[in-house]
Specification:
This protein is mainly alpha-helical and about 130 residues long. It is built from 5 helices and no strands. Helix 2 runs antiparallel to helix 5 and helix 3 packs antiparallel against helix 4.
Length: about 130
């Protein structure tokens, strides 16, 4: 089996993993949650309104502060939604899994034994096998 075929098999295995299934279900729940979708639309509209106001030559500091406050409140509401909370928790698990997979692959390319590569729990200063900073 060539390396690309093996990568495709790994992709299929990832899609069978419980962490993937959890985030997939969370995405679908977010999409089906009309209240959450309405909040996201309001958030995006408010962000656009704030951006437009910030681009004005004569900025109104009071209006900017009010828009910023409204935007932050909408963001808090979006992030407090139970479906979004579940999605974010599932995303942490999937990101952790993918970072570890990347560590194994990068370590292997750098000559490390793939069977002995362990998940990094913090930054060791060597970026060669890093999956990225948080």
């Amino acid at each position: 089996m060539d390396i690309i075929a093996m990568a495709r098999e790994l992709g299929k295995a990832i899609q069978q993993d419980e962490r993937y299934k959890r985030i997939d279900a969370a995405k679908k729940a977010n999409d089906a949650d009309q209240a959450l979708q309405d909040l996201i639309v309001k958030f995006n509209m408010k962000r656009s309104e704030l951006s437009t106001e910030m681009a004005q030559e004569n900025k109104d500091p009071e209006k900017l502060n009010a828009l910023d406050k409204e935007l932050k409140e909408l963001y808090r509401d979006v992030m407090a939604n139970e479906n979004m909370v579940e999605f974010n928790a599932a995303k942490v698990e999937v990101d952790t899994m993918m970072n570890f997979i990347s560590e194994i692959l990068y370590g292997s390319v750098n000559g490390e034994n793939p069977d002995t590569i362990e998940m990094q729990t913090g930054c060791g200063g060597n970026c060669a096998s890093c999956g990225g900073c948080h």
